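Retro notes - structure team

What went well: the batch runner handled both jobs without manual restarts.
What didn't: labels got mixed up in the shared folder, which is why I'm recording both outputs here explicitly, each with its sequence directly above its tokens.

Job 1
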Amino acid sequence: MLWLKSLAYAIVSVNISGRRLLPVSMRLLIITVPTIVFLWTCALTCLAQFNDTTHYYTNFTSTGAINRTQDGSSYLLNNAFRFSEKKKSIALNFNNNWVYGRSNDDLTNNDFSTSLDFNLYKSIPHFYYWGLVNYVTSYSLKINNQFLGGVGGAYNLIDKKNIMLNLSDGVLYDRGDLFIADDIRDNYHTFRNSFRLLYRFVIKDIVTLDGSNFVQNSFSRRNDYIIRSTTNLSVRIRKWLSFTTSLNYNRMNRTHSENTLLNYGLTIEKYF
């Protein structure tokens, strides 16, 4: 396809790392299946955005960089896939993200997350209920396995075509297996409060600034919290193609680990 031939990428990244990776076979399966789904959906010809008869959206971002000097080399790849279905009373979202990087043959990132969430719209204006299941494994954050699941409510403070501001709060059950040190594992479970700030600003259908910020505190331990922050700035090149700059920050305070990524690349999206 013509759009596939046009896909080029560039990335500038800053990253603070930890440990842990997925088996190669699982990584290939995780990346291959969403890619097949994405290519299949992009074969559809309808280009309309969400309306009475169009309820699907797919988004794929692939970025990467290689930095080579006389002292060594490094590279980092970042792949993200999203598929959404929206109806009048419910919306479903399926998200996958994989970050992989090396510096001088040392692993710096092998971070994967997948989530499935729903929004349930009832009679209260601007308010909806949400539910979420999320799986995370992260080398840089020292997470071997982590499962999060829960429910809550959200309210749109501003809900216009070009401006959206949303607050959300709920309760999550968190069960995880962490690396505290090379020979020390932390198997735990806890309930967390999950607070989120979500926003989007669109300028003349060309420039989009959007982001999400999460703070997830444990009810049982004050110093056990998770912070996740993502800010994206996109400039539309074609109806289906945008140049995107993303700043991501993640902290897992239980392992005293964090990472920061500044990415530049291309985003392909499709409404149908």
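Job 2
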Amino acid sequence: MATSRQLVSIYLNEGDEWEKRPLHHEILQQLFRFGCAGGTVLRGLAGFTASAGGPGAQGVRPPVVVMFIDAPEKVAEVMPTLRRMAGHRLITLQDVQVVSPE
């Protein structure tokens, strides 16, 4: 049996901060405070954005993606806070089907 949920991905750089603390850690803290089901931070080996000068540019920081899956209602509740924290950074939202073992 599958359950409808939403997957949120927030694309950051490793050095991004929120109030002088690592942004990805602070986002996880917010997810916990809002009672989300969980969250994961993935570190990328390399990446680039067109505005940052492209691959190999000086000062390019490794990418970090914060991901979580939750009910659409919970995502809607936490999204204003995440958008404020993420600022200009990319956030994606996908409808997914979660299949859990019985």
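One thing worth noting from job 2: Strands lie at 2-13, 17-18, 21-22, 40-43, 63-70, 91-99.
We'll revisit the folder naming next retro.
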